[in-house]
UniProtKB/TrEMBL annotation:
SUPFAM superfamilies: FAD/NAD(P)-binding domain. This is NADH dehydrogenase. It comes from the Bacteria. It comes from Streptomyces africanus. InterPro entries: FAD/NAD-bd_sf (IPR036188), FAD/NAD-binding_dom (IPR023753), NDH-2 (IPR045024). Keywords: FAD, Flavoprotein, NAD, Oxidoreductase.
Length: 459
């Protein structure tokens, strides 16, 4: 039993934030009913995005709304605040929060007080000072970016089909992906599959007219699936006429020309940047200890080192890997660890409130699965190596088992089933990015190029 009222603040609504809050509201159900505990979740989006499904959402295999989990529905016993933490003073147990109404109110950020802090803001794209990247690059971390990329690819095919200028056509049909991790390889594989299928509906665009280029700075792709499966993935992609360039960097994409470190130049209207992530900037606005990579220093119990009543996990946390043979190793910042860490983190907060001993986070890495497009994939799980259809099937089965809520599982499974019975959808809804443009033009104004008022939407 909790001895006194406890206010728990969870910063972030991603894997760790949502699963931690979900487990807390289950474990502390009676305390919540008695008003002894209050759980507040601060997140910029009203939903949690299941990122492994972003490539399939981009390819049209899954509806965008089934890739996200509405937090207000799932966390019905928590207070969900749509906003961002801009600063945290843990010594005073306060967090400065900005919400959607902050600018209109004109009173500055709100000050929230708490007793227990869970920092799970996740990560943001790690970009480099590449000329032209800020102007022309496309990210791939959010469902909005995934759907925007799908619309963009189909739009480029429309441009190529209608133009009489060979240079414009060539640039429109050249797609450059930077980064050979899960996000880059799976996004390229799924979108190339989709675009190849879509060419059957274009009278003057053939699959061989398109150039798909994967740029990776290291000497391998998909390091998580092992060296052998990584080599197979390269071979499989090249068999599909995808230009895989290892030990190569993007030097510039200014003026819509991708310049690579090996001297190659590709006029292109599509540069997708998936070359890594970095910790969320809010970590730098705290008084908590961080390592040289900007992640919070944590103990094996998922407590922030040297700070009482502060917890962290996932991308934001440097958690020691107690299962590693060599000392000093940390858990990889991936979804597999994040899901399991959230469970231990929530349990340890409950143990703290009830003055019970804490658990140690201990999980050996089971392996990884990756999709290379429809019916194609690679996997290295529990020492077993799979490729082709079996790996693709395992990829789908694994992620279907991990996507939160039975509701989402059923909807995703239904969509996969229907996709196997009917043809792919190849519709571009790019106008969604500027929904008021047509009305503004009809009203006599100049169509605005600004993003929608609330681009995140609601779930």
């Amino acid at each position: 039993m909790v001895k006194e009222r406890a206010r728990i603040l969870v910063v972030g609504g991603g894997y760790v934030g949502m699963y931690t809050a979900l487990r807390l509201q289950r474990r502390l159900k009676r305390e919540l009913e008695r008003g002894e505990v209050e759980i507040t979740v601060v997140t910029p989006d009203p939903y949690m995005t299941y990122q492994p499904f972003l490539p399939e959402a981009a390819a049209g295999a899954i509806s965008p709304r089934h890739v996200v989990v509405p937090l207000r529905r799932v966390l019905d016993r928590c207070r969900v605040v749509i906003g961002e933490a801009t600063a945290i003073d843990h010594a005073k147990r306060t967090a400065t929060i900005t919400t959607l109404a902050t600018e209109e109110e004109g009173t500055g950020g709100q000050l929230l007080t708490y007793d227990e802090l869970v920092l799970a803001p996740g990560s943001v794209s790690r970009t480099l000072p590449v000329p032209g990247l800020a102007d022309h690059g496309i990210g791939f971390k959010t469902v909005e970016e995934a759907i925007g990329l799908r619309n963009h690819v189909i739009e480029q095919m429309d441009i190529a089909s209608s133009t009489r200028d060979p240079a414009i056509r060539d640039a429109a049909l050249t797609f450059v992906f930077v980064g050979g991790g899960f996000a880059g390889v799976e996004a390229l594989g799924e979108l190339e599959d989709m675009a190849r299928y879509a060419t059957r509906y274009y009278h003057n665009v053939q699959p061989e007219d398109m150039k798909w280029i994967l740029v990776e700075a290291s000497d391998r792709i998909l390091p998580e699936v092992g060296e052998e499966m990584g080599r197979y993935a390269v071979t499989e992609l090249r068999r599909r006429n995808i230009d895989v360039r290892l030990q190569t960097r993007l030097e510039s994409c200014a003026d819509r020309v991708a310049v690579l470190s090996d001297g190659a130049r590709f006029p292109t209207r599509t540069v997708v940047w998936t070359a890594g992530v970095k910790p969320h900037p809010v970590l730098a606005a705290t008084d908590l200890p961080r390592n040289d990579r900007g992640r919070l220093k944590c103990t094996a119990e998922l407590a922030v080192e040297g700070a009482t009543h502060a917890w962290a996990a996932g991308d934001a946390a440097a958690v020691p890997d107690v299962t590693a043979a060599e000392p000093g190793r940390e858990c990889a910042p991936n979804a597999q660890h994040a899901l399991r860490q959230a469970k231990v983190l929530a349990d340890n907060i409950v143990h703290t409130l009830r003055a019970e001993p804490l658990q140690t986070y201990e999980h050996a890495y089971a392996g990884s699965v990756a999709s290379l497009g429809l019916h194609k994939g690679v996997a290295h799980v529990y020492g077993r190596k799979l490729k082709g259809y079996p790996a693709w099937f395992m990829h789908r089965a694994y992620h279907l088992s991990r996507v939160p809520t039975f509701n989402r599982k059923a909807r995703v499974l239904a969509e996969w089933t229907l996709a196997g019975l009917f043809k792919r959808e190849i519709v571009s809804l790019g106008s969604l990015e500027h929904p008021r443009a047509e009305f503004e033009l009809a009203a006599g104004g100049k169509p605005s190029q600004d993003p929608p008022v609330n681009p995140k939407g609601s779930s």
